[in-house]
Specification:
Blueprint lengths: L3 E7 L19 H11 L6 E4 L3 H14 L3 E3 L21 H9 L12 H13 L6 E5 L1 H12 L3 H6 L7 E7 L5 E8 L1
Parallel strand pairs: 1-4, 2-3, 2-4
Antiparallel strand pairs: 1-5, 5-6
């Protein structure tokens, strides 16, 4: 199959940064939306999609308006559900539990939260549905790392080592198929 570019853009800064915001639908700042729009300004894409959470959706809609494109909302691109930790500051969570989560988020998921493997499977499903054509997905840091785990086979320590600040743009060249392959083309933090 013909490769295409997959641009993964992390949403801009939320109004309350520093929290574990999985399913929490925190609003983005105007500056966060503008940072995403500016980062995507030079991209040529056939499709724009996003997570259904406002911090990603509002940025995608601003980008879509700039590019004259309709945005497709896809909840599979949501962040990891942090369960009982959702919306909390890391300081408000038991340090040992948080450490175990960082060491192995599949074996030690947040209480009532989503396992890492479930997030990777959700993102793999979204990627498998892609039929080619350069595209932009406005999503979350965890979803971007899950895409890298699925497509490039990165280990958990490698994934945590990748800095994905708000409005980070990760570009992959993707060869779709039964076992998709990807090459990292660029990362703009």
């Amino acid at each position: 199959m013909t490769p295409f570019l997959l641009h993964l853009l992390r949403h801009g800064a939320p109004e309350t940064p520093g929290l574990l915001m999985g399913r929490t639908d925190g609003a983005p700042t105007a500056a966060g939306i503008a940072a995403c729009r500016d980062k995507a300004a030079g991209l040529r894409v056939e499709t724009i999609a996003c997570s259904d959470l406002a911090r990603a959706r509002l940025a995608a809609e601003a980008i879509g308006a700039h590019h004259g494109q309709v945005v497709r909302v896809d909840p599979r691109w949501r962040e990891l559900d942090f369960g009982a930790w959702d919306g909390l500051s890391p300081d408000a969570i038991d340090a040992d539990a948080l450490s175990h989560f960082h060491d192995d988020p599949d074996a030690a998921p947040p209480p009532d939260g989503e396992r890492w493997s479930a997030l990777v499977a959700r993102i793999a499903s979204a990627i498998a549905a892609m039929d080619g054509g350069d595209r932009l997905i406005v999503t979350h840091g965890g979803a971007m790392r899950a895409a890298l785990a699925h497509l490039c086979g990165f280990s958990q320590p490698q994934l945590w080592a990748i800095d994905l600040p708000y409005a980070a743009l990760l570009t992959l060249r993707l060869w779709p198929g039964e076992q998709p392959m990807a090459q990292i083309v660029g990362l703009q933090a």
